[in-house]
Amino acid sequence: MVKFYNRIGELAELNRIRDLSFTDHSRMTVITGRRRIGKTQLITKAIAETPAVYLFVGRKNEALLCAEFAGEVSRALDVFVPGEIRSFRSLFQYLMELARQRPFHLAIDEFQEFLTVNASVYSDIQHIWDMYKNKSKMNLILCGSLYSLMQKIFTDAKEPLFGRADNIIKLSPFDLGTLKEILKEHRPKFSSDELLALYTFTGGIPKYLELLCDNSPLSINGMIDFMVRDNSPFVDEGKNLLVEEFGKNYGAYFSILSAVSGGITTQHDIEAAVGDKSAGGYIKRLIEDYHVLSRRRPVLAKEGSQTVRYEITDNFLQFWFNYFDRYRSLIEIKNFTALKTLVKADYPAYSGRILERYFRQQFAESGQFRLIGSWWSPKGGAVEQNEIDIVALELEKKRALAVEVKRQKKNFTSALLEAKAEHLKHKVLPDYDIECRCLTLEDM
Predict the structure, then answer these.
(1) What does DSSP assign to residue 204?
(2) For the chain, which terminal residue's Cβ has fewer other Cβ atoms within 10 angstroms, N or C?
C-alpha cells in the first residue's frame, strides 16, 4: 500500500506553517502519536520537493551520530559542514546560522532519543532556538514515537523546551471514510462484516492496514490467518509498542490492560482481578500519561461520579491483549492452529462489541451531535436492563438518539429499548424528545 491516504488537514496545516517559516521567521512544530500511525510518512510528504534535511536520532554515541548528520546536511543542502562539528549543539547552531541565509526544513525523527544520547541537547536547542528564531527561516519539525516522553518534553513546565513549540499536531488513526476507501480499493465488493473486521483488527492504524492489504485477501478468515501464525508481525506488536513506554513496571500495566480487554471494567473488579489494591495509580497513568485507557461515565453523569467504566482506546491493543497476550501459552508452543480456531469462533461476539465503538465514531465524525456516550443505571434492577449502548444528544434541539447496537436486526426487541429510553428520559433527559433506533451491520 504505497499510496498516501488522507491527512488532508494535517498537510494543509504543515504547508501553512512552512509558508510562515520561509517568509516570516522560523517555526517549531511537534508531531506526536502512537507508533505505526504514519508520522514519518506524513513528514516525508510535507517536506518533499522543497529544501529539506531529515535526521533520524538513533541510540549512538553523539560524535558518531553527528558525523552521520553532517553527511546528511551536506548532501541535502549541498553545503560544506566543518569537520570540527562533533556535537549536536554545534550542528544545530550551524543550521540556524544557515537558515539566516536561506529557508529550509529541518525534520528530526525519534526526537525523544536524545535523552539516551545526551539529555542536555534539549537545553542546547532551547538556548540556540531562542537566539536565532526571529532572524532565521527554518521550518523545524520534531517527532517521536514514545508518546509519553514527547508530551513531557514539550508540555512539562520544568522541561527546557516547554512553550517553545508553535504547533503540536497529534496524529489520529484514519477516519471511517478513509478505511472504506482503502478497503474498496483492495476488495471492491467488500461486505459490512469485512469492513467491521478491518476496523476491529486495525482501528485505522496505517501500518496495520498496509500489512493486511499487502498480504491478505481482506476476507475475515484471510485477515485472521495472516495475523495469527508463526512469525506474524502482529504476535509481539503490543509488547513492542508498550514495553518501552511503560518501563520496568510494564508487568503491572499489562495485567490491568489484560483484565480490561477481557471485560473487567470497574476499578474494584480490576483490583480484584490483578490482586493489587493500589491499581488506581497505574490506571490514572494509563489514562493521563499513556492515553491507552479511557474513563467512561454514563451520559451527563457528573465529572466526579464514581459510576466509571474503563476501556482500551485502541482497537488493535484491545484485540492484542484479548488474544495474543491472554493466550501466550499457545503462542509459546506454536499452536497457532488452536489460537486461530479460537479467534474465528469468537469473532461474531467479539466484533459485535466493537460495532458499538464503530457507530460511536460514525456519530462523532458526522458532526451532528454535541455529546455521544452510553448510559447505564447502576441502581434499580439488573444493570443490563437499564443500559443503552449509545446515547447521542443533537447539537441544538432538545433531541436525543437512544441506540441499541446489534450485528443482526432479528436480535433486537424494540419494546425493551423503548422501556429503557423511558427510564433514561425520567432519570436524565426530562426535556428531551428521544428517538429509539437499532443499528446493525447493514447501517455501516
Answers:
(1) T
(2) N
